[in-house]
Design a protein that fits this description.
Number of strands: 5
Number of domains: 1
Order of helices and strands: HEEEHEEH
CATH class: Alpha Beta
CATH superfamily: Response regulator
CATH architecture: 3-Layer(aba) Sandwich
CATH topology: Rossmann fold
Strand content: 15-25%
Amino acid sequence: MLCATTSRPDAILLDFSMPGMDGPTPLRAAQCIPALASVPVLFLTARAYSGHVAGLGAAGVVAKPFDPRTLGRQIASVLCWS
């Protein structure tokens, strides 16, 4: 998170299910850091139903498996970037 606070990313991608930690934990941490509070966070998840992240404050969900060649377009679409 420290690198993210100094370089202010356009978005943060988090895997929803990580070894030893779930995705909501770093999301909550980012939301408490003023420099990151307004940065959109997207979850990468293999779960077909994205409703499980609805109340967490994430900007959206990218379903796995995803095609790395089109991931940028998927992220832009979820965040409504043109």
